[in-house]
Amino acid sequence: MATTMEKDHMGTISILLEREINGFRASVLGLPDCQAQGVTREDALSNVQKALSKRLESAEVVTIPLDSFSLPKLAGLFKDDPQWNEFQAAMASYRQEVDAELEAEYLQSDQPSSVA
User: What are 18-43's pLDDT values in tens digits?
Assistant: First the structure.
């Protein structure tokens, strides 16, 4: 079932829907201050859609081309920095550590649990 927003703009938006003690809370992902509550799931979704529509009445979403940030000018910015190689090595080491932890968790979760 398409919402009004989806019909008008032919797009979708992701909503985090959470169960709470007194109902549900719906939050627009990427806009943490755009939230609404409702007694039912449908109420929360309807309320967050209204909140988002109200917010967008006085705002607009625009896109900016990446070349406006002069990304090519940033290339090589740190080539003469004496700490650059040390920084890269530290990042690589950290990445290997995180990858090893994730792999260990993944392998542990693949093990069948034994019932004693």
Answer: 999 999 999 999 888 899 999 999 99
Reduced to 3 states, what is the DSSP secondary structure of residue 72?
A: helix
In-domain check, residue 70: no
Instruction: With respect to residue 44, please indicate whether it lies within any of the assigned structural domains.
Output: yes
Q: Find the domain containing 39 and state its range.
A: 4-57
Where b means 16+ CB within 10 Å and e means fewer, 62-91 reads eeeeeeeeeeeeeeeeeeeeeeeeeeeeee
What pTM was computed for the model? 0.47
Residues 6+ positions from 6 with CB-CB distance below 8 Å: 12
CB 24 within 8 A of CB 40: yes
CA angle 48, 49, 50 (to 5 degrees): 90
Tell me 59's DSSP state.
-
Write the pLDDT tens digit of every residue in 81-96: 888 888 889 999 999 9
What sign has the CA pseudo-torsion 40, 42, 45, 46?
negative
